[in-house]
Amino acid sequence: MGIQEEFIFKIQPYITAWKKQFGFGVVSAIIGQACLESAYGTSEKASYNNYFGLKYKPNRVTCSIGTFSDTSYEQRTDGSYYQITTSWYMFADMNTGVEGYFQFINTGGYTEAKNQTTPEGYLTALKNAGYASSKKYVENVMRVVNTYNLTQFDEEETPMRYHVDPNRKPDSPLAKAVWTDHYCTYPRQTKKKPCEFTIIPHCTAGNSSAEATARYWASLPESKGASSHYIIDSKGVIVQNVPEDCRAWTTGGDIPKEKCPNHITGSEMDHQAITIEVANITREPDWCMSAEAINSLVNLMVDICKRNGISCLKYSANKALVGTPEQNVAAHRWFARKQCPGNFLYDNLAAVVTTVNLYLGTSPAPALVPCNGSYIINGLDYSVVFDPVYYSDKYSDLKAAFGTNADLLWKHFCDFGMNEFRQGSANFNPQVYKDNNPDVANSPYGEDNFGYYTHFVQFGQYEPRVHN
Ligand SMILES: [Zn+2]
Predict the structure, then answer these.
(1) Distance CA 384, CA 345 (A)
(2) For residue 47, what pLDDT is reported?
């Protein structure tokens, strides 16, 4: 999340709550006003919890804790600007800051605004009643409303909330549980047509710790907002936010049903999917992720598949396959006008899925691609750990059985050699690699002997590691 989204998620629940209390207002328009007036919560006035540029007027607002002096620019009807120094309301916190806005508007002069139900209608009526002097006020606020799709907060929806037992253990042994109740609906409809089981990785558009993101979501009042089954941060820490048997609020989109892939909306996907938010170390356009985060993503996906009886992930970056048995990984951008999961993860999703499948396929033996002089397993080139001449010379039993037949030696290496931790090339000694690289031994790559060869092929050969 960027600071804009963070501010929106923070202030929206208060606006929704006070709107219900006062019985008027259009949530999207009021969030837009707060964004614009407070520069997304970063302005001087916002530091006094005055998010709406509320000037002091005697007997108008009762929930303030005093006033402060500050300047602002006002616009004359001829378009020119002038500066004023005046007193502004000061509030104790965001909650009373929002309450103050409603008290401020709750007078006879704004009767017309109180009858409005659309953001344009509401803002126009406020402007006509003298709320703001800027000539382009309505236009400017509406730009914010549209950019952040704020009208989603105008819809009334009260799904059945599921209250998570705080003592419940995480579903994944790789995760720490920080549950949220509010954006968690029971049950998730697993293995039900048309979506089947799907995993949807997302990008958080921010770089907070997984726990901070989870606690932030969990701290929001019950209202519309965000959650995901898992959150992974840039250090690779995994937090579980919503139980796997519940629906998380992650993928809901703004693309109409008839234009969604196979007419399956983002919210419908949420009812079927397990969602994973991954933190970013850069912002747009690439939204890069750390190696630790990607590593955790792979490990978590393997774990989810194993526990949910999924033997293979299928992904071909083709949104036409959403909801078919041909694809069980999907991208948020297919359902919403968003970049999610960002270019970096979107471009690497096929590689992530291939790696996950490699783990899932390691037992009992990796799928063998016909040799033909190359040593490929599941798309990875193992020639750096396998040299048929070396292999035959090193092991007399193999030389007796296969001579110098490279295809047969390679088949033995795949079927038995790696499981027996045999050395396939002068360049790579698996026992030395294991003994000198405890981080590999402690990772899922260290779960079986084959994993050490794979780790060296994928990463180790490019890194300063002891390997022979
Ligand atoms: Zn997303």
Answers:
(1) 27
(2) 95
Q: Would you say 352 and 294 are in contact if contact means Cβ atoms under 8 Å apart?
A: yes
What are 270-288's pLDDT values in tens digits? 888 999 999 998 888 888 8
Ligand 1 centroid to Cα of residue 18, in Å, is 29
Ligand 1 midpoint to CA 440 (Å)? 31
At 194 the pLDDT is 61
Amino acid identity, position 315: Y
Task: Tell me how far apart the alpha carbons of residues 127 and 135 are, in angstroms, rounded to a whole number.
Answer: 9
Domains of the chain, CATH where assigned: 3-154 (1.10.530.10), 177-360 (3.40.80.10), 376-462 (no CATH)
What gap in Å lies between CA 463 and CA 466, rounded to an integer? Answer: 9
Instruction: Give the whole-angstrom CA distance, residue 175 versus residue 445.
Output: 18
Total length of the chain: 468
pLDDT value of residue 199: 96
> Averaged in consecutive runs of 10 residues, what is the pLDDT profile of the chain (468 residues)?
82 85 92 96 94 92 93 81 89 94 91 92 94 90 93 67 84 94 78 76 92 85 78 95 92 83 87 94 86 91 92 89 89 92 90 84 43 68 91 92 83 89 96 95 89 92 90
Residue 109 Cα to ligand 1 middle (Å): 42
Distance 266 CA to ligand 1 centre (A): 10
The CA distance from 41 to 61, in Å, is: 21
Surrounding residues of ion ligand 1, Cβ less than 5 A: 202, 332, 340
How far is the centre of ligand 1, averaged over its atoms, from the C-alpha of 251 (Å)? 6
Rounded to two decimals, what is the model's pTM?
Answer: 0.49
